[in-house]
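Hey, weird one. I pasted the 3,4-dihydroxyphenylacetate 2,3-dioxygenase sequence into the form twice and got a warning about non-standard characters only the second time. First submission, copied straight from the form history:
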Amino acid sequence: MGTLALAAKITHVPSMYLSEFPGPHLGCRDAAINGHKEIDRRCRELGVDTIVVFDVHWQVNSEYHINCGPTFEGIYTSNELPHFIKNMPYAYPGNPGLGHLIADVANEMGVKSRAHSDTTLELEYGTLVPMRYMNADQRYKVISISGWCDWHDLTESGRFGLAVRRAIEERYEGTVAVFASGSLSHHFADNGRAPEFMHKVYDPFLEQVDRRVVELWKAGEWKTFVGMLPMYAEKCWGEGDMHDTAMLLGLLGWDRYTAPVEIVTPYFGSSGTGQINAIFPVTPLPAPAVA
């Protein structure tokens, strides 16, 4: 029925928005913004009608949650970094139908999930930042899924990702792109030292592990990466415990996925964290995928 047309791991660093304005950081995130615009260009070519975002800025403590309101509109200021993102307007259509299909399939698979369409839930900046550069004309419907899962297992998040794919391909009539919106290593600069880390990773160890991970991705060494994912998320402070990445890999076949990624925006440091835009080619699901 439906088509999963594109999958990607993307950055959402708030300095992208900051870099739009006159001042010392003007233009500093052009590469990341241009990466989002390139992903948008490909989505348009592929006829994507809906973007699903695994957003690590939406924290949940129980179950998997899907924000599939009919519309999203407001003016956003980050409560985490209000000096980076303030008074940012947004307006996007939602897709309640697909959101509920995802929850239905996940629950049938034994992954407890809830879709929220009659809701006052707002979007977080893990969704809002990329949509600013990909969806200013409201071309795409948007669904945001909680990706900061404090009390969840990474393998279960992989199964949730598989449920997303099954919902798209087996029950939805349309074309969808799915993004894991989050960093690689995610140790911020210590308080008072933020300016010196604006374009750096916090520690050489973290950067070297990140760069090795990117090499594994480029080589399609997913069995190795999945095996190291829990320790990587723990020791390198993976954003949202890297549940967004687990969901993305579950969507694609987990440790049986074999395709090499395409780097759209090369790895870079931002406020101590490791960032990238990378397209994960969509290939037929192996059987079985996530056990």
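That's the output from the first submission. The warning seems to come from a hidden character in my clipboard, not from the data itself. The first strand starts at residue 3 and ends at 10.
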